[in-house]
Specification:
Order of helices and strands: HEEHHHH
Radius of gyration: 22 Å
Low-confidence stretches: none
Number of helices: 5
Largest sheet: 2 strands, antiparallel
Mean pLDDT: 88
Shape: elongated
Structural class: mainly alpha
Distance between the termini: 78 Å
Length: 199
């Protein structure tokens, strides 16, 4: 009697990647909606003459100074965090746990650096929360991004503990972390451009 050959192994379902993509899309819509409201209020602001004679929206309240250095450092740090998260994925494919730990550890430090830079930005701008529409929208958008960074740093630490704790066959969690870093950086680019650059 001949036995039938075994069936092919089922295709991986990659639930974590799918969930990360759905979460990234939801976050993009959330921040896109808040930035659209920001732009609507900014475009409805009265006009004033700038130093070069052009008419611009008088959206930035008097006494509020936007410091670009911390905002630019946050952008560069997020981009570097993407490289570190991707390095962890690359090292996991080669079963190099030392570099997986290094990549995730440095990425976590970068996330904490972004949180620190945002707190510094708050202290330097000294914008009161209840000062008007600008103030409320500024804290709503940047505060939401700050919460997103806290969640991202916790997720990166969790992935490091999971992978380095012995589940080295589960590389999907590292790919999910890297995808989360890419999505967060893309969201911050929009926040950076509309809030810190164009003001």
């Amino acid at each position: 009697m001949h036995a039938l050959p075994a069936a092919a192994a089922p295709a991986p379902q990659r639930r974590l990647i799918t969930g990360t993509v759905l979460a990234a899309g939801s976050l993009a819509m959330f921040f896109g909606g808040m930035l659209a409201v920001w732009m609507r209020f900014r475009n409805a602001a009265p006009l004033k003459e700038s130093s070069n004679g052009k008419l611009i929206a008088d959206w930035l309240p008097k006494g509020v100074t936007v410091h670009d250095v911390a905002a630019n450092l946050m952008l560069m740090t997020l981009v570097a965090g993407c490289f570190m998260a991707q390095m962890a994925v690359y090292a996991a494919k080669r079963k190099d746990n030392v570099h997986v730990g290094l990549g995730l550890g440095v990425a976590t430090l970068f996330a904490l650096a972004v949180i620190n830079a945002q707190a510094f930005e708050y202290s330097q701008m000294a914008v009161p929360i209840r000062g008007g529409v600008y103030h409320t929208m500024f804290y709503a958008i940047t505060g939401s991004f700050l919460v997103l960074m806290i969640v991202l740093s916790a997720y990166t630490v969790l992935a490091a503990f999971r992978y380095l704790g012995g589940r080295t066959g589960d590389r999907e969690v590292l790919a999910s972390v890297a995808l989360s870093w890419y999505a967060t950086t893309g969201i911050y680019i929009a926040v950076w451009f509309l809030i810190y650059v164009t003001k």
